[in-house]
Amino acid sequence: MVVAERKPIEEILAMVADFKKVLLVGCKGCVTVCCAGGTKEVGILGSALRIARKKQGNPLEVVEHTLERQCDPEYVDQLAPMLNDNSFDAVLSMACSVGPQFIAKKYTIPVYPMLNTTFIGGALEHGVWAEFCQSCGNCLIHHFGGLCPIARCSKSLMNGPCGGSANKKCEVSPEIDCIWHLIYDRMVELGQLEKLRPVFPIKDWSTSRDGGPRKIVREDLKL
Amino acid sequence: MKAGSNLEKVFTQGHFAVTGELGPPRGASVEVIEKKAGYLRGVVDSINVTDNQTSVVRMSSVAVCKLLVDMGLEPNLQMVCRDRNRIAMQSDLLGAYALGIRNVLCLSGDHNRFGDHPQSKNVYDVDSMQLIGIVKKLRDEGKMLSGQELEGVPKFFIGAAANPFGDPFEFRVTRLAKKIDAGADFIQTQCIYNMEKFRKYMHIAHEEGLTEKCYIMAGITPLKSVGMARYMAKFVPGLDVPDYYIDRLKGVEKKKQADEGIKIAVEQIQEVREIPGVRGIHLMAIEWEHKVPEILEAAGLLPRPSVN
């Protein structure tokens, strides 16, 4: 899933400093799963903003609403009745950055992101998420014991650990596992170490962001 | 002869090679380079010019190599994968060759988080292994990665680095073998302090026949003080500094620690010379270039052979 986290409250307060009434919109997709922008987080941020502004003697009216998903036009359309009377100064989106862009595409009103979209990852344990994928568009993990050196090696090395790998940790931080050490251990475990012996060829990054913004068209699904 | 560089000739004519290292200045000063180069003149076979080492912005490695060429010294161009994509790399390699640079050392590079621009966007389009392959393709096929024929082929002597002390140890010789397969003609190792581990590494490499396929140079970095030894042991990832060196330096009064460090370096040079498959040393006297002649003199490696 897309993992995101809320922007610091100070940054958000600065964004909304000039507004009197805003629509705060959450998303029931990925950001609900990673506890960054679901109904619960909309409620918390809404309250925090009201309290902070009340303390400043400059109250802010915050209307809360959570959509099924902000990355689908059919759900974004549901905001129309609320936005059509022009009573809001801005929309604050609590989705990944697709959400505010979809809202901005449909409505002529300033839209502000409340979250920082951080990575494609998974939960390691309750409250801990980590990056597993860089969406390079050409998955190669079967060559590496099912582990991704593109996303999980700090240098995206494809031919083994760099000279900085020590005690199973990355040179960048002792908090980061050396994925190449994990790949090595995994290949030993699978009895496939010899598969790491050939020099892995240079990657085609054109399927990644480097080919320009990407698009998938599924003719079979088009209406 | 693949490139005909001085370093390659020293190897092919059976001499024990010595390379030095020059860290470019954090600025545009030619004087700094002239001064450092002066210490290395005539005492090493080739001078590595580091490429924004530790991710700190310094004068371009290609530019410094060219300055060395103009001074009549032989450079070894270091190139890291951190800052360039395959387009910039090939372009710089062609330019470097045109400027008279004949040796190139292919590295992945320290991560940019360590340097003076940790907010930068790094590249890592290719890894060090793949960069070796790019240089080899340019040289041996006369083609760019794209398959485009070159107008003038750069004949480089291709180097790579190896760290026998990184983990997992068991994979380190495999990685060396991969670099040789990719096209490395010579290897310079990370600084060696744990001689026992290095012997083990070289033994495996020798048994596997790798030392016949490639010239391996042992990395030596003199310890200037107990503080430096402690720092290297603690903070440089993938470096193995055994306690006995720290204790040895600690046992000497502060003023004499530098001399003791030089003594250790000379002993290390003697030790690596005895290890089968070691064909030279790469002396990385970090910001201590002026001590290089003294170390090499004491190690009996001067004068350097004159080759044709």
Automatic annotation (TrEMBL), chain A:
Residue stretches making up the Methylene-tetrahydrofolate reductase C-terminal-like domain: 112-206
Domain of life: Bacteria
Pfam family, one: DUF5981
Protein name per Swiss-Prot or TrEMBL: Methylene-tetrahydrofolate reductase-like protein
Source organism per UniProt: Desulfosoma caldarium
UniProtKB/TrEMBL annotation, chain B:
Annotated Pfam families: MTHFR
Protein keywords: FAD, Flavoprotein, Oxidoreductase
SUPFAM superfamilies reported in the protein's UniProt record: FAD-linked oxidoreductase
A Gene Ontology biological process term: tetrahydrofolate interconversion
Record GO terms (molecular function): FAD binding; methylenetetrahydrofolate reductase (NADH) activity
Protein species of origin: Desulfosoma caldarium
Protein name: Methylenetetrahydrofolate reductase
Family from the record: Belongs to the methylenetetrahydrofolate reductase family.
Pathway: Amino-acid biosynthesis; L-methionine biosynthesis via de novo pathway; One-carbon metabolism; tetrahydrofolate interconversion
CDD domains on file: MTHFR
Family annotation (InterPro entries): FAD-linked_oxidoreductase-like, Mehydrof_redctse-like
Catalytic activity: (6S)-5-methyl-5,6,7,8-tetrahydrofolate + NAD(+) = (6R)-5,10-methylene-5,6,7,8-tetrahydrofolate + NADH + H(+)
GO CC term, one of those recorded: cytosol
Cofactor: FAD
